[in-house]
Amino acid sequence: MKTTHQFFAPCPRGLEAVLATELETLGAAAIKTTDGGVAFSGDKALCYRTNLQSRIASRILWKLADQRYRSEKDIYDAAYALPWQEWFDAERTFRVKVSAIRCPLRSLDFVTLKIKDAVCDRFRAHGGKRPSVNTTTPDMRVYAFLTADTATIYLDTSGEALFKRGYRTEQGEAPLRENLAAGILKLSGWEPGTPLLDPMCGSGTLLIEAAQMALNIPPGAERWFAFEQLKNFDKALWDTIYKEAVAAEHPKERLPIYGSDILNIALAAARANLEAAGLEDVVNLKQVDALDVAPPAEAGLLVTNPPYAVRIGEEEKLAQLYPKLGDLLKQRFSGWRACFITADLRLAKMIRLSASRRTPLFNGALECRLFVYDMVAGSNRKVKNPAD
After folding, report:
1. H/E element holding 112?
2. Which of 203, 207, 222, 274 is such that its CA lies 20 to 30 A from the CA of 260?
3. pLDDT reported for residue 171
4. What is the CATH number of the domain that holds 269?
5. Do 190 and 150 share a structural domain?
């Protein structure tokens, strides 16, 4: 009989509904959306599959305990009661990370230390040897989340964050996290086969995510996962899931996905990342100023992450850029949908267009907005996009 487990998948804030839909497609049950992620249930196969195929989740956390507490000792006891020695060997390194909302305890660092002690003490009580702590590159990651009166303890099944797909060799000054890029494409209404253009592509994150979606390439196909080091790892099951996912990939061919940038160094980074992802012959790249770009088709999606003002004097340059971008869209991109993800909220006013949607999103800790514009010849009336 298959054992059902409880999981939690954190994601960039603003993408919870998109992640819930994706998890349902992958076979998750008891899906519950919360701020910053989605809780769900499923068996071991679902754990493997979501790690391999989720484009939106940041991690897949296995829920081990959910217990009320009043003191640090209560949290220690809850952690000590868990059979850690049955899940991983003492030779594995681990780290503990604690986060909280409205927690009455004085120090989260002390709570972290108590959970670490509980894990080690449990190993000592069942074999005499304790695992070592590694705070930078641990084999196992233990997470705890505290509310005002409840402590939830998780074991991370992913290892490195899932947005680290394994292909990136170069990045720009303010790169999008890969799962945020995938979420933006979902929120935009883009579907594979619809022409896509990123006129300020930087290191190519949006292009690569779109190409992988179009070719049905599993986002985790080129990386390893922490669940492979658990004692209950089922290699035969994992091999079957992995082979089935890879077999479902579409043949690689030139796609209507276009990227450009004015900077040669940015295009070099995009080419390096595309090559590392095996997509160098799939995406079309060109060096051109964003204000000189021409639409590659009569209709499609323009999506981009404009440069941020990170140096003195750049804010004024961007203030001059935004209205020119608005003029470009009105003059050349009728019939297109345009999406801008930016932390610079001046864009909404300075681009001089009426946004059909404004969605708050987070790129790491950086608060952003996704502005969506539906372009119609001779005006900026809202129009339903066929991709919706």
Report:
1. helix 108-125
2. 222
3. 66
4. 3.40.50.150
5. no
Mean pLDDT, the chain, whole residue set: 93
* Amino acid letter, 121: D
Rounded distance, CA 107 to CA 194, Å? Answer: 51
The strands making up 300-304's β-sheet, listed across from edge to edge, are: 284-287, 257-261, 196-198, 300-304, 336-342, 366-374, 357-363
For residue 17, give the nearest of 46, 40, 41, 38 by alpha carbon: 38
Of 362, 367, 368, residue with least CA distance to 12: 362
**Single-letter amino acid, residue 293:** V
Q: Alpha-carbon distance 216 to 247, whole Å?
A: 10
CATH value at residue 127: 3.30.2130.30
- 88 shares a domain with 199: no
Q: Which helix (DSSP H) or strand (DSSP E) does residue 247 occupy?
A: helix 235-247
Q: Which amino acid, one-letter code, is at 16? A: E
pTM listed for this prediction: 0.92
Beta strands 150-156 and 140-146 are antiparallel
- 193 φ/ψ angles, rounded to the nearest 5 degrees: 105, -25
Rounded to whole angstroms, how far apart are CA atoms 58 and 97? 15
The candidate with the shortest Cα–Cα distance to 292, out of 325, 319, 315, 256, is 325
Give me the pLDDT at residue 170, please: 67
381 contacts 334 by C-beta, under 8 angstroms: no
